[in-house]
Amino acid sequence: MLTLKTAEGDIFDCIDIYKQPAFDHPLLKNHSIQMKPSSFPERVGDKTLRPAAKTFADGLNEGCPFGTVPIKRTRKEDLLWAKMFGKYSGSNAVPSPPTHAGENGCFSMLCLGFVQVYSKYPLAYVLDKVSRCEGVQHYVKFHIIKDTRSGNWGLVHGQYGRPVGYWPNSLFESLSISATEIRWGGGVYTDNNATSPPMGSGHFAYEGYSRLLL
């Protein structure tokens, strides 16, 4: 078994794609792997980001051999970090949003079910470049899309929609019926009598692209 180690010290084992942890989930015992989505929405191919922004394109440089996928070894530190950050998604969060179908959730691959198909971009991969105010802006582009045929929820990377993996349709209930896409974002809020807190870099878009901090 080939093992890859990143500059940050993370270790990824190249596991047979049919023996990855996802298939330890009881609902995926007889699951057939879907290597790529059957179609892509038009927005996956858009090229609206400016040339001044640089994408994270390297991933695990050499990647894993054909037929295998990189799975990160879970360390004790990973479990401790996940437990610590968990408080920001519960009653201590501001606001504390309601959840559907229980309070379940976890980071990266700590929950079973995500089927990885690409040999170079694993979940839990550390991005080694950051945007700097009035400097080069770096970005990483992902989409979560529902496959129109299988109903699986695919995670694709980049403007050309390179498939990283997917969450099988069988893992979901109502989400598998009516929803067609997932989006995420953020916002800040304050009372009318208080100063609004900054979000992101604290600069407005009209101040210049290099101050946005993507």
* SS content category: mainly beta
Contiguous uncertain segments of 5+ residues: 48-53, 88-96
β-strand number: 10
Question: What is the spatial order of strands in the main beta sheet?
Answer: 5-9-8-7-10
* Morphology call: globular
Distance between the termini: 37 Å
- Portion in beta strands: 15-25%
Please bin the fraction of helical residues: under 10%
Order of helices and strands: EEEEHEEEEEE
Explain how this protein is built.
It is a single chain. The protein has one helix at 76-85; strands spanning 3-5, 11-16, 53-55, 68-72, 115-116, 137-139, 142-146, 153-157, 162-167, 181-182. It has 214 residues and is mainly β. The protein has one domain. The protein has a five-stranded antiparallel beta sheet with strand order 5-9-8-7-10, with no helix packed on it. Strands 1-2-4 form a three-stranded antiparallel beta sheet, with no helix packed on it. Strands 3-6 form a two-stranded parallel sheet. A hairpin with a 6-residue loop joins strand 7 and strand 8. It holds the Pfam family Neprosin_AP. It comes from Carya illinoinensis (Pecan). This is Neprosin PEP catalytic domain-containing protein.
List the helices and strands and how they pair.
Elements: E1 3-5, E2 11-16, E3 53-55, E4 68-72, H1 76-85, E5 115-116, E6 137-139, E7 142-146, E8 153-157, E9 162-167, E10 181-182
Parallel strand pairs: 3-6
Antiparallel strand pairs: 1-2, 2-4, 5-9, 7-8, 7-10, 8-9
Domain Neprosin PEP catalytic: 1-214
Protein name: Neprosin PEP catalytic domain-containing protein
InterPro entries: Glutamic_endopeptidase (IPR053168), Neprosin (IPR004314), Neprosin_propep (IPR025521)
